[in-house]
Amino acid sequence: MKVPLLDLHAQYEPIMSEIRKEMDKVFDSHWYILGPSVKEFEQQVETFLNADYAIGCASGTDALILALQALNIGEGDEVITTSFTFFATAGAISRVHAKPIFVDIKQDTFNIDPDLIEDAITPKTKAIMPVHLFGQAAEMDKIMAIAKKYNLKVIEDNAQGIGCLYDGKAAGTIGDIGTLSFFPSKNLGTMGDGGMCLTNDEQLADNMRQLRVHGEKPKYIHKWVGLNSRLDSLHAAVLKVKLNYLSGWSEARRKNAEYYYKNLKDLNEITLPYIHPKAVSIYNQFTIKTEKRDELMKYLSDNGIGCAVYYPLPLHLQECFADLGYKIGDLPVAEEAAKKVLSIPIYSELSEEQMAYVVKTIKAFYNK
Ligand SMILES: *Cc1c(COP(=O)(O)O)cnc(C)c1O
Question: Can you tell me the distance from the alpha carbon of 115 to that of 101, in angstroms, rounded to the nearest whole number?
């Protein structure tokens, strides 16, 4: 049996004719950048997440850059973030010439450890950028309290967490700005690159709408230098259809997670994902921890099961950040996670037969 890590064929097959119809409307209009389909999709997201403003852009990475620029964060500023995340989180901070300050993660949730944030604050700190990793929200109550106390902005990197909740609120709508990615493998993915900024602040929304079109307002008048970062109409057409299915897909992922929790709980050699009591996860990944990670990964791959390491090298140890001066041992929890994590298939369309095979194969590896 084959169980891929993600199966886009299975995801698209039942909805392809609906998507083609929406795409045809774009072809008929020949309006390819922004335009009515993007506007409609933005409004759909605003309703879905209960956010006042959603601003479509070209990628999740650009969404972070637009958010930082909209908050006037740049040269000489510091932004506190997690080291255990996809590169773009810190890459965006560097792109605007600000300095990423990495703090360690919690051992159980893999998210930024709020108790370590205050120690990292300096007079140059402008913002905190938590990441809702693997589809589970970081501890936003504690993060927002710290931000308030020190007058810092909060940008939520919610590329992996669309629709996940913290304290009943949608992640990405709690801080000053939240960002989304529509990269194909995200829970809401398009047929290429796409992203979005979320905010409840009218001024910030206006800033980001200007910044995505070179910082222009009105046409050909530039108060600042922005990006060329728009969401394409064709992507909005795809995403409009898919958003209607997202809640069902997230529910299916949670059910699949339940299956793994039930059937792997007695296996002492692996640690299953921990979900904080205030969080509702959308399981962008189902990430286990084990001492024998590399061996298990090879065994699963040899037996036709897709799996991946997110992420093998924490950002504070990346060569491009060497001048920040971090060394091995500085963020021990992130470094240990990088050695032990393994993400296994959790996508919505998995059959019970496939999950049973994953469970059986993991157990066979441990001779259980
Ligand atoms: C995917 C991802 C991004 C970047 O999104 P792109 O759309 O690929 O640019 C940023 N942060 C995190 C945590 C991500 O997983």
Answer: 15
Q: Is 195 in the pocket of ligand 1 (CB under 6 A)?
A: yes
| Architecture of the 8-240 domain | 3-Layer(aba) Sandwich (3.40)
Q: Is the CB of 160 under 6 A from ligand 1?
A: yes
- Confirm whether pTM is higher than 0.85: yes
Q: Are 136 and 164 in contact (CB under 8 A)?
A: yes
d(CA 348, CA 286): 12
pLDDT confidence of residue 367: 87
Distance 62 CA to ligand 1 centre (A): 9
Q: Which residue CA neighbors atom 6 of ligand 1 most closely?
A: 60
Q: Encode pLDDT of 48-71 as tens digits.
A: 999 999 999 999 999 999 999 999
Task: Note the pLDDT tens digit of each residue in 143-165.
Answer: 999 999 999 999 999 999 999 99
C-beta contacts of 360-367 below 8 A and 24+ residues apart: 361/299, 361/300, 361/303, 361/305, 362/264, 362/267, 362/270, 362/296, 362/300, 363/267, 365/292, 365/295, 365/296, 365/299, 365/300, 366/267, 366/269
* pLDDT score recorded for residue 331: 98
What are the boundaries of each domain within the chain? 8-240, 246-367
Looking up tokens 């900024």 gives 197
Q: What are the φ/ψ torsions at residue 309 (nearest 5 degrees)? A: -100, 110
Just give the CATH number of 246-367.
3.90.1150.10
Q: Among 85, 160, 311, name the best residue to mutate to test ligand 1's pocket (greatest count of ligand atoms within 8 A of Cβ).
A: 160
Tell how strand 341-344 and strand 286-290 pair up: antiparallel
131 lines ligand 1 (CB under 6 A): yes
For 205-225, letters b (16+ CB in 10 Å) and e give bebbbbbbbebbbeeeeeeee
Q: How far is the CA of 104 from the centre of ligand 1 (A)?
A: 20
Measured on CA atoms in the order 210, 154, 89, 320, is the torsion positive or negative?
positive
* Nearest-angstrom CA–CA distance, 288 and 201: 38
